[in-house]
What we know:
The protein is α+β, with helices and mostly antiparallel strands. 43% of the residues lie in helices and 13% in strands. The N and C termini lie far apart (65 Å).
Amino acid sequence: xxxxxxxxxxxxxxxxxxxxxxxxxxxxxxxxxxxxxxxxxxxxxxxxxxxxxxxxxxxxxxxxxxxxxxxxxxxxxxxxxxxxxxxxxxxxxxxxxxxxxxxxxxxxxxxxxxxxxxxxxxxxxxxxxxxxxxxxxxxxxxxxxxxxxxxxxxxxxxxxxxxxxxxxxxxxxxxxxxxxxxxxxxxxxxxxxxxxxxxxxxxxxxxxxxxxxxxxxxxxxxxxxxxxxxxxxxxxxxxxxxxxxxxxxxxxxxxxxxxxxxxxxxxxxxxxxxxxxxxxxxxxxxxxxxxxxxxxxxxxxxxxxxxxxxxxxxxxxxxxxxxxxxxxxxxxxxxxxxxxxx
Length: 342
């Protein structure tokens, strides 16, 4: 029986020591949001740090979005952090700060879809629900040799049905974790480890000698964009940062001023009387998001005297102790400055 083989594999090989292996629904929720579009090994240190700061819903619901973004800095897909903040405020207002345990309440929270809601409730032992994340999709598609040329909606419906039919009545959390683990560790996108798979002899793709790459997402072609930024440092080694609002990217984070082109940057520099402090030094680096490959062009502006400079006084932060969330590219800019220009 498939379920027994999969559970036996999990007993001996599954990831049981993950820090979010708990029935605390709050902690399971945080982990499931962090794991959206992000690998386990990347999430672990961020999760530990987050739970260390906000160990329960009450602590989280009293935090600001800036507090949450500070801990999220570097994890990417910052909309998830905003969703966590919005959810905490909604739960505080509508559920008396108690995390909802009904599917219909959970599915209405920001950032929670069918798979995330199912995982949260099943892992916290508040129900038994099938899931269909990327790893499980790939595993089931190969196991049952699903025709990837079918319309996406038809494929999704087939896979959900298969996931539902496979779900055992007992050890449900262990079973869905084993599906995810097999998909991640064994049934990989490329070069799957079929000889280590517990159900390879039941796998139609393996029998047909056609372990194909399964990817039902549309191929994303990275756009290339230039972006210009000014690293502004004063004579007290403080950095000037502004709250980001750039094409709805990095929303709520803090960064050196950034611009879509050199013209807008030059205009802003002149408006704030910074032109005399602008270094001729410029350096470039690439920064990839899921859909854009940015080429950053970084100018350094070291202010010796601020008599004529017209910059907001409360936007200056200690270079070594920035208390707000910053994007990864900002960390790289600061590191480069400290290592080569300070």
